[in-house]
């Protein structure tokens, strides 16, 4: 059995926890590997090693363009091992191979993008008065902690780590206990290429190991992706030490489909937005807001598409894989059973047993209709392949429904009338709004983050580099030289 070690201060070590934690393939129920909880002493050692490393002359002397070159080298390395890493991600998360391959390519793109940006983040000068040269410089924050969720482990690790290292920080990654495999593969490359302490990987249960990092008095920034409830705890912990946070939290994102929408593209977009990674995506299009005049035909065609989707193990590369684990499976199964009893299910709603994969966590993609806009099914993140339909008659009603949750991560607007589309986009409270598409291809360059309870700050694009820098103003008075 493979044991996933941690990388602390340049050494490969096991966690000090008493019990092993199984890493399970959601498609088969097979145990892929095991890991242990990091102890407080091990977390302390990692933070101390990061502090020594980030303040060392060895790291200070690495030029910005040289950091960038290393990140570009990692991007090339990922592409060289793309199929191997895609299979790891597929087995670890359960997502279809095509989606896993897209995640691997996205990880390579993050390192490529931030590798190219490493020497292009510049300060400024401010005119004050004659005799003063005033410079604004950007410096690394120091030690950055990255707490990564289980749904996109490689891609989410890459997007924040690449920006943090590009700006000269030391990084500590806490991978999700369910899905550490690709992070471990990446860690092996960092262990060979970087000074010890600049990149470290910690393992263990989030509820036990996470607080050891977020409450640590010697860290300088926390990046967290996960649930709102845990995000609140991260903020509380960070507040104890006045540490800034970047939080990418939940979503209940709407696709708003008007009667004049490009229907074929809208159907495809709505389906893909909810079945990607079995709906286990913070930006999943979990609500369909459909104009009354278009509802009957659109829903008929949508149901037809749902009923032809192929569900199976990730390695079979079908339309949708399993849920991640038994906890998700039990929670969503119970929710759908209640929805069936309440008469909301118009297709799907059942668990699935797939021959040869009886231990996998499979569930039918499901559409709910007739749910009140204020009901839990329409308000709370389910994190599964469950689409809730709501109906509107006017543009203002559509906007009110779109904004009618505590979340504001992503929205899709589908209309051939660009006046309507732009008007709605300007009034929807979401960090990203897509018109006649959903999610865009890649999106590495586009700032990503939420309004309201969907989070604080932005990741991706050039703006994310500012998460990992602090600003210093230096004012230099100079004298007029004497002339002879």
**Residue share in helix:** 25-40%
Shape: globular
User: How is the quaternary structure best described?
Assistant: single chain
Poorly predicted runs of 5 or more residues: none
- Strands, total number: 25
Write up what this structure looks like.
By secondary structure, the chain is an alpha/beta fold. 38% of the residues lie in helices and 21% in strands. The strands form seven sheets. Strands 15-18-19-14-13-21-22 form a seven-stranded mixed beta sheet, with helices on both faces. Strands 10-9-8-11-12-24 form a six-stranded mixed beta sheet, with helices on both faces. A three-stranded mixed beta sheet has the order 1-5-4, with no helix packed on it. Helix 4 crosses helix 5 and helix 10 crosses helix 11. 51% of the residues are buried. The model has no long low-confidence stretch (mean pLDDT 96).
Architecture blueprint of SSEs:
Layout: E1 2-3, E2 6-8, E3 11-13, E4 21-24, E5 31-35, H1 40-54, H2 57-60, H3 64-80, H4 82-93, H5 97-117, E6 124-126, E7 132-140, E8 143-147, H6 153-166, E9 170-174, H7 181-193, E10 199-202, H8 206-214, E11 221-225, H9 228-240, E12 245-248, E13 254-257, H10 263-275, E14 287-291, H11 292-308, H12 326-341, E15 345-347, E16 351-352, E17 362-363, E18 366-368, H13 376-379, E19 386-392, H14 395-402, E20 407-408, E21 410-414, H15 418-427, E22 432-435, E23 451-452, E24 455-456, E25 469-477
Parallel strand pairs: 1-5, 8-9, 8-11, 9-10, 11-12, 13-14, 13-21, 14-19, 18-19, 21-22
Antiparallel strand pairs: 2-3, 4-5, 6-7, 7-25, 12-24, 15-18, 16-17, 20-23
Helix pairs in contact: 3-5, 4-5, 5-6, 10-11
């Amino acid at each position: 059995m493979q044991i996933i070690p941690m990388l602390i201060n340049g050494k490969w070590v096991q966690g000090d926890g008493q019990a092993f934690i199984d890493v399970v393939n959601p498609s088969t129920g097979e145990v892929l590997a095991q890991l242990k909880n990091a102890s407080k002493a091990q977390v302390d050692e990692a933070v101390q090693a990061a502090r020594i490393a980030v303040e060392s002359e060895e790291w200070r002397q690495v030029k910005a363009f040289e950091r960038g070159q290393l990140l570009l080298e990692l991007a090339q390395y990922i592409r060289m091992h793309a199929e191997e890493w895609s299979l790891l991600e597929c087995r670890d998360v359960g997502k279809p191979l095509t989606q896993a391959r897209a995640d691997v390519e996205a990880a390579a793109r993050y390192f490529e993008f931030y590798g190219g940006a490493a020497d292009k983040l510049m300060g400024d000068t401010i005119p004050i008065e004659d005799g003063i040269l005033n410079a604004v410089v950007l410096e690394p924050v120091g030690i950055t902690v990255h707490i990564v969720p289980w749904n996109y482990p490689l891609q989410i690790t890459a997007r924040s780590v690449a920006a943090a290292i590009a700006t000269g920080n030391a990084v500590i990654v806490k991978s999700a206990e369910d899905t550490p495999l690709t992070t471990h593969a990446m860690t092996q490359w960092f262990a060979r290429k970087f000074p010890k302490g600049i990149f470290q990987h910690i393992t263990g249960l989030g509820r036990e190991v996470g607080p050891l990092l977020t409450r640590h008095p010697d860290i300088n920034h926390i990046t967290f992706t996960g649930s709102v409830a845990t995000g609140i705890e991260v903020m509380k912990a960070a507040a104890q030490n006045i540490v800034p946070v970047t939080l990418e939290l939940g979503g209940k994102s709407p696709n708003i489909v008007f009667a004049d929408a490009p229907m074929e593209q809208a159907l495809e977009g709505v389906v893909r937005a909810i079945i990607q990674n079995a709906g286990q995506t913070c930006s999943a299009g979990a609500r369909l807001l459909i104009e009354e005049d278009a509802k009957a035909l659109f829903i008929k065609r949508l149901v037809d598409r749902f009923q032809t989707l192929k569900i199976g193990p990730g390695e079979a590369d079908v339309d949708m894989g399993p849920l991640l684990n038994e906890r998700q499976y039990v929670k969503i199964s119970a929710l759908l059973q209640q929805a069936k009893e309440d008469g909301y299910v118009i297709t799907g709603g059942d668990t699935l047993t797939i021959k040869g994969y009886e231990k996998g966590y499979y569930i039918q993609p499901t559409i709910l209709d007739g749910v009140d806009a204020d009901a839990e099914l329409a308000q709370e993140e389910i994190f599964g392949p469950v689409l809730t339909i709501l109906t509107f008659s006017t543009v203002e009603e559509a906007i009110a429904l779109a904004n009618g949750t505590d979340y504001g991560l992503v929205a899709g607007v589908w209309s051939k009338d660009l006046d309507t589309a732009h008007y709605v986009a300007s009034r929807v409270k979401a960090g990203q709004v897509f018109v006649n598409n959903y999610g865009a291809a890649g999106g590495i360059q586009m700032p990503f983050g939420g309004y309201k309870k969907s989070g604080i700050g932005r990741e991706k694009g050039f703006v994310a580099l500012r998460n990992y820098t602090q600003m210093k103003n230096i004012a230099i008075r100079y004298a007029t030289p004497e002339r002879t």
